[in-house]
Amino acid sequence: MKLINVATPEEGAVKAAEIVIKQIKEKPASVLGLPTGGTPIGLYSELAKAVKSKHVDFSQIQTFNLDEYYGLSKDDPQSYYTFMNVNLYASCGLRSDQTHIPSGTAPDAEVEVNAYEAAIAQAGGLDLQVLGIGGNGHIGFNEPGTDPKSRTHVVTLTRNTREANARFFTSIDEVPTRAMTMGIQTILDAKVILLLVFGANKADILFDAFKGPVSLNNPASFLQNHPHLIVIADTAAATRLYA
Ligand code: GLP
To answer: Does this model's pTM top 0.85?
Structure first.
């Protein structure tokens, strides 16, 4: 694992954008795996700036998001599709045929998750997967206890995760109870993984993920097995790694 320590999330966003842009310059038709959440917003705004100034060309990339709430339509203000459209697709001029997110309103969720996994394989697999980490170690929506061999699947969200994500909704009751997510093995199959971890509230889970055992209790700990993992952590998140 390569650990890049940055002073602030803003600096982390710039470093992360450099890595993503390098990937796209080396392979213009790169297949990117992308996260939602507060963590990648700075990265997405750096990428939008780079596209606008013609520093990078996104016209051939394909993107696959990690996850989507089950039960929310694409145009629901809280859907991850809306999040991506607002934070990346529109500002980077991505066409709809370039972007992929599981459909939260698919009539048969099992059919949808299997088709999503097949679409990733059809695209040639993920070249670079960008990740955030949940407070309980979840990656995508792979909660503690998830089979490390899992592929894209339907999950029941933990109370902890629904509480953490309630800040984007009016109340916790509005946070869906189920979601669709790439599995841990889907993520681990990416050629390169770029994990972004910012803030003191992530310090303990980051420490457990990389200084503790590989364990079902902390899904992010399975990243220890990945041959090409880059972690960008700000000082607040990384303090315990260096202590
Ligand atoms: C959500 C997403 C995860 C993300 C996590 C952390 O639950 N499904 O992919 O990593 O939140 O979010 P944040 O970056 O806001 O801390």
So the answer is: yes
